[in-house]
Amino acid sequence: MGRHRWPAQPPPTIGGRRVHGPKVLADLRCVRLQLSEIIAYPAGMQIRLALTATDICAEIARHETRALTNRDDFSAQWSYLTVTIGVDDLSGEADPYYPLTTNTGVGKGMEYRTVPRYWMNTLPTSGTITAVEGRNREKWR
């Protein structure tokens, strides 16, 4: 598979059709990762994920930073999932184009939620998409 980077860009404003989702990808004690949906367009597809963390996991997730402009800048207090998407012979890290993040509460009862959206400017000819989020690996048909 060739290395690729899926840049942060929005999908077309019209012409999309929901083809997959929702599906729970990981459901642990204080972390839940969900595929919200995949929307196919003639020119590519949009993948929407949702990560919800509570209590101590929320505090950790809030400080897990990945600045899009400077990977070595750890001063930011926001988080994105590190997501690698594979489509046919292309595989690479995907940058969210619309990362909506909320952070509520403090300590016990705290919740951190991020709902990033990713744009892939191609459709899989094989019908399969592979996504790796952190240590979680999923394939969708």
Describe this structure in words.
- The two termini are 18 Å apart.
- Strands 2, 3, 4, 5, 8, 9 and 10 form a seven-stranded antiparallel β-sheet that branches. A five-stranded mixed β-sheet has the order 1-7-6-11-12, with no helix packed on it.
- The mean pLDDT is 79.
- The protein is mainly beta.
- It has one helix and twelve strands.
Give the averaged pLDDT, no decimals.
Answer: 79
Number of helical segments with 4 or more residues: 1
Helix/strand-derived category reads mainly beta
Q: Sheet with the most strands?
A: 7 strands, antiparallel
Observed structural traits:
12 strands; mainly beta; 141 residues
Concise overview:
This protein has 141 residues and is mainly beta. The chain has one helix spanning 55-63; strands at residues 2-6, 17-20, 23-27, 31-41, 44-54, 83-87, 90-94, 100-104, 111-115, 117-120, 129-133, 136-140.
Topology:
Layout: E1 2-6, E2 17-20, E3 23-27, E4 31-41, E5 44-54, H1 55-63, E6 83-87, E7 90-94, E8 100-104, E9 111-115, E10 117-120, E11 129-133, E12 136-140
Parallel strand pairs: 1-7
Antiparallel strand pairs: 2-4, 3-4, 4-5, 5-9, 5-10, 6-7, 6-11, 8-9, 11-12
